[in-house]
Every structure is written in structure tokens, then in C-alpha cells.
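Q: Sequence in, structure out?
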Amino acid sequence: MLPSRVDKVQFKKRSYFIKRDDLIDPCLSGNKYRKLYSLLQTPNATYTKVISYGGGQSNAMYSIACLCEAKGWEFHYYTKTLPQFLKDGVEGNLALAIDKGMVVHEVDHDLFQDKISALQETKEDKRLLITQGAADKIAKEGVCLLADEIYEWKKSQNITKLSLVLPSGTGTTALYLSQAVDKDTQVFTSVLVGDEAYQYEQWKKLSDGPYPHVFPSKNKHKFAKPYDEYLETYKALYDETGIEFDLIYAPKTWMQMYDNIKDNENVMYIHTGGVSGNSTMLERYRHKRKANR
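A: Exactly. Output:
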């Protein structure tokens, strides 16, 4: 439901505002709702088939599946060969997306990029190809709507200067948000996939700037791997705020936000959703603990 509400919370004795985009829709929530907003407004007859690609537990995958079910569009998703344990017991976002009617196509790791290139070159009437993670110009309209909501909220609270913080997978939401906010609002982001140089390469594919401020990374953690400090932060956030955040993107972002933004500033964290993937991540943490015994 729009506009998404704003909660004020305390974490480690500091005050933060939380933009609750995770509550927009139970299926299509967070920044994926913003990225896919323009397609939600698109007449159903515009497309018959949607194709996308990426990881086997992608949040974007599940959100696109929700969109396609609502629109009556076929959804075909290409991913690298799935691990055997997942084939033996489909779970998490993959299970949720399949339940929404998604057709999964597994591609050998060595052939994956060639397959994506072939999909990009194929022209077909009423077919839409959505880039991995919805890192696409279609995202701009919904993110601009988010910026408008934040501006109106700022006025209602008599707040002039505001720091906005959100995680980046593809970085698309952070990019378009930094270009749409007013001059007294700064956008900061935590890079989760690759390093800062890689993130700027992705942004340059969509825009010449301006770009968000990137938090410096102290540790080079691998994406979507279970790290004890992430789990500890996830639990602390829930204990202190009563809000569940995702386990992949949020912990590092909150840690960097705490280290890099002064406690006397007005700070808003954009809750980008993704909690549907927590069940599989928590299972990975359980396996890690068993393996370390």
C-alpha cells in the first residue's frame, strides 16, 4: 500500500527512520515493487511472456513471478545448474516462484553467458526480457515515486537535511533514487555484489550520473555467504526494533551505516524487502554451525 509508512526506531542507542517498503505488498515488496512499478501499470495485453535470469534464490525472481501471475503472463527464468540438495527439496524463493507459475530453465555454468546473450538478441512479439535483478531503465518510474514520497514525508516532519541509506545488489534503486531526491537529501549505499569499481561499471550502463555515495568496505566478504557478524546484526536488529530485515543485504548495510554516519543526523533506512529468502539463509547458518562442531 502506497505511500509506505515510516517508523522511527532505536538501534544501538541511535535513532533511525525506516521507510517500510517491505510492507507494500506481501508478495511483491520492497525495492522490487519500485523497480517493477511501471510494469504493474502496463496493460495486461502488452505482453504474453516475460523472461529473466539470475540466481536460483533471487528476490527479483520471486517478485517477477508475482507480477506475471497477476498479469497473466508466462514467466520463464534461466539460472545456472541448481545444486542437488535444492533439486531434492525445492524451498525458499525458488519454491515460492514456481508456485506462482514460473518455468525454470537450468543452464550449464560454462554456457550461461552465451545463453543470456542469445536471449538478449532474440526478438519476439509481446515478449519482455528483464535484466538480472531488474537492473533496467523500467525501474526509474517507481523509484522516482519513492523519492516523491520521501520528499512529502520530509515536509510533513519539518526535516530539511536527510541521509537515505539502502543496500545495493545491482545498485539500480540507489542510482535512480540519488538522481530523483531533492538537493538536501543524500543517498548512501552499501555494495554487496563485487567491489566499488564493479558497482560503478554497472551504474555507467544505466546513467552518466550523479551516483550515490558508497560506504567503504573494510572486509571483502563474498556475496550471500553466511557470516557470523551478519547473523548477530540480524538478530540484534530484530530484538531492538521488532522489524525483520533480510539476512543478505541488510546486516552489512546497517553495520556500515552505523560506522559512517554521525548519530546526530536524520537518517532513513529504506527497507528493501527480501525477507522471503531468510528461511533458506537461516538453514545455511544451521548447516555452518553443525559443520563447525
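The longest strand covers residues 74-80.
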